[in-house]
Task: inverse folding
């Protein structure tokens, strides 16, 4: 030891209750955003597959725009930019959820497209040849199989979006990172506190990973 | 098969006139005329790429055609795949068995068979299950009802696919090389089930490479070459006395081994 380094375990432990207060916001923004993102992903992913150009084209535009710009820029635009258009402020949590929604929605669109496209053509032909409508064929045959194949990629996107919420400290949402910053401002224990912040993110993402792996092991995923 | 009933006086189930089909610049079907009477078993033979699969896939609209007339079960199919409502009605009455079985891997055998009757014919769950079990019994795999397709052999899967199509009580059955993806020892069990179906009077259009099966079961054999019907007639005539040179050379190639 060169003497200048001392890791203050007490400070690390003391920060935990304070940091934990940020976890609900992290989870709310991540999973709230992902829920809307999944809806957007289904809509635009399916539009992206449409043979009709005027349906496909808006989906391509949506995907390219929100996949091609940083989620930080998106949330700044929503939080600071949109109020100028709407004429009223947007709550920071709402802005965070909206940013995760549109951003993850773009990626999920591509996951949905890939999952649906991965189903062999013969499945559709078998459904149609039995007299099922195109919508019934999709609902009972293509989607259930495609969805199983999407789950690993959806899990991956979930983990990415959870981590993306850390950027929303900049708009003042009291999520994990923001709570850490505030705590550091009074204690000056950056090393200890950021380590604890990292540990809490890891706890959240590992839980999600484990849940997914259990789904896979039970054979509910893949094929 | 002489006691089989073909109703020549009734309106044909399939009436195809001057049907033309292109894949881009490739002219796959050329002025094909084909009429299938109720109760008739038609076997289509020909080299791979001759257009025989495309031909039967036109009958239930899985392939669209560019010109010609096509009437199936009294309903007109339009060129370029128009009129999807009619198409769905036709498909309800026309069953199809595919080379690759195309069972639904996420559904049990029973659910594979009951799905369409329940969703299209609005059959009750109980009725659909009863019908499914009866059909499974008929194709000799009553004990497999609760398994998933991946747990079955190829021959069993294809018999499930047959039961699935029959559950809709079709007026016409199409078979697209039903035994080509099977291991040799499983071909017999599928052909037996088809033989049984023919004996019961089902109208069938079969694309196959099984020449001895064709000879035995077919009322009419059609030889197709490069998208054209070159020769057709009773199996004995086509197989033993082919009149056209192309038919002769095709048969000498496939029957020699």
Result:
């Amino acid at each position: 030891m060169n003497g200048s380094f001392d890791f203050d375990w007490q400070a690390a432990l003391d920060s935990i209750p304070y940091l934990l207060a940020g976890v609900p916001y992290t989870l709310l923004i991540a999973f709230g955003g992902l829920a809307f993102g999944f809806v957007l992903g289904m809509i635009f992913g399916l539009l992206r597959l449409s043979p009709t150009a005027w349906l496909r084209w808006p989906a391509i535009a949506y995907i390219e725009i929100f996949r091609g710009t940083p989620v930080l820029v998106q949330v700044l635009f929503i939080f600071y930019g949109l109020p100028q258009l709407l004429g009223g402020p947007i709550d920071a949590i709402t802005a965070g959820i909206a940013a995760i929604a549109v951003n993850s929605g773009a990626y999920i669109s591509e996951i949905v497209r890939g999952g649906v496209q991965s189903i062999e053509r013969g499945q559709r032909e078998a459904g149609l040849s039995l007299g099922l409508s195109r919508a019934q064929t999709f609902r009972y045959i293509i989607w259930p199989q495609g969805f199983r194949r999407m789950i690993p990629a959806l899990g991956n996107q979930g983990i990415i979006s959870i981590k993306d919420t850390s950027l929303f400290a900049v708009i003042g949402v009291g999520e994990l990172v923001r709570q850490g910053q505030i705590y550091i401002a009074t204690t000056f224990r950056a090393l200890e506190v950021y380590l604890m912040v990292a540990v809490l993110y890891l706890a959240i993402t590992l839980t999600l990973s484990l849940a997914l792996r259990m789904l896979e092991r039970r054979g509910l995923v893949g094929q | 098969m002489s006691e089989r009933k073909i109703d020549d006086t009734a309106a044909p189930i399939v009436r195809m006139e001057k049907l033309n089909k292109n894949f881009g610049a490739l002219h796959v079907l050329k002025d094909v005329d084909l009429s299938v009477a109720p109760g008739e078993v038609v076997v289509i033979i020909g080299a791979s790429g001759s257009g025989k699969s495309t031909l039967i896939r036109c009958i239930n609209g899985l392939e669209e055609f560019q010109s010609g007339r096509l009437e199936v079960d009294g309903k007109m199919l339009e060129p370029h795949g128009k009129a999807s409502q009619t198409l769905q009605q036709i498909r309800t009455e026309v069953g199809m068995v595919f080379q690759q079985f195309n069972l639904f891997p996420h559904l049990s055998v029973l659910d594979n068979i009951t799905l369409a009757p329940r969703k299209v014919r609005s059959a009750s769950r109980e009725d659909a299950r009863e019908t499914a079990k009866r059909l499974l019994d008929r194709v000799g795999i009553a004990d497999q009802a609760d398994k998933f397709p991946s747990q079955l052999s190829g021959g069993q899967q294809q018999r499930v696919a047959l039961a699935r199509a029959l559950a809709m009580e079709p007026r016409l059955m199409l078979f697209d090389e039903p035994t080509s993806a099977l291991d040799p020892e499983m071909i017999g069990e599928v052909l037996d089930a088809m033989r049984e179906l023919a004996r019961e009077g089902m109208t069938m259009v079969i694309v196959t490479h099984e020449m001895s099966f064709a000879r035995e079961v077919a009322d009419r054999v059609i030889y197709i070459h490069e998208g054209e019907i070159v020769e057709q007639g009773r199996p004995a005539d086509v197989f033993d006395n082919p009149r056209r040179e192309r038919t002769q050379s095709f048969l000498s190639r496939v029957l020699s081994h």
Notes: The mean pLDDT of chain A is 92. The radius of gyration of chain A is 21 Å. Chain A has nine helices and no strands.
